[in-house]
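Continuing the series of single-chain predictions for the mutant panel. This is the parent chain; the variants come on the following pages.
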Amino acid sequence: MRIAVIDIGSYSCRLSIADIENGLTHIYQEGNITSLSSGLKDSGFLQKDRMEETLRVLEEYLKRVREFKADAVVAVGTQALRKAKNAQDFLGMVKERTGLDIRVITPQEEGRYSFLAVAYSLKPEGRFCIVDQGGGSTEYACGRGFNPDRIVSLPFGIVNLTEEFLHNDPPLVYELESLKNFLDEEMLRIKDECDILVGLGGTITTLAALEYGVFPYDPSAVHGRTLSLDSVMFWLETLSSMKEEQRIKSFPQIEPKRAKVIIPGILIFYRTMVIFGKKEILVSDWGLKEGIIVSEYLKRKKEEKGGE
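Parent structure:
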């Protein structure tokens, strides 16, 4: 069986297509920054241009789905679609133009799927905690094996933190300090004991690409890498001292659309490492969409076993 999963996130849309017949094999993946949640914090509504851009990307994804002859398509939406007052209007537009039914998942489901992706692909030993930092929310899921015993969702990500705290380019010292203080207060409330900290999302994979000189981006050269606290701090200091335009010119690993919002993302990981008492973080290229694929694969295996 061939399954396609589309993740409509607050900042980016992503597509994965995989075979789950005899083992789990990824055959295609693509990601696009659509900034669906831009302007949502202030207005409460998804902006028309962001909806149109996301729709355009979804139409392209469905062409890939047909090209690769996927047997099933699963499409999920996260924080932007949980929060926007006009989310139902957008879901209706998607259904009308593409025939796609998007399921808006809960933060708990989002955390569980991301945890599952890490558990299956990286197999961390002992108790581990994943930090899935997105555009509009950040999920923390902790546990052992395939079983998270605690999932917490914080209602902020790189888009709304940038809009709220960083108004200058490059950001001013007091803006960074205000953001740091805000994050520390939130993270002290959710601090948990773990043996391994795992980072997910475009910010941490971009940092790994920068640290290890990976360009063009190659998931296999990033997945399973580690970043030290010192290296995360180095990139925070380096990039926050640059203007957005300089980041793009100096580092091809940073997508132009990501350059503006990368600083809050780095700060989330840096402060998490400090507060959780970890000197390094494991990087996962697998996240929500891969977790859904893993879930379907394990379900299929269980059904096959039951039918023997």
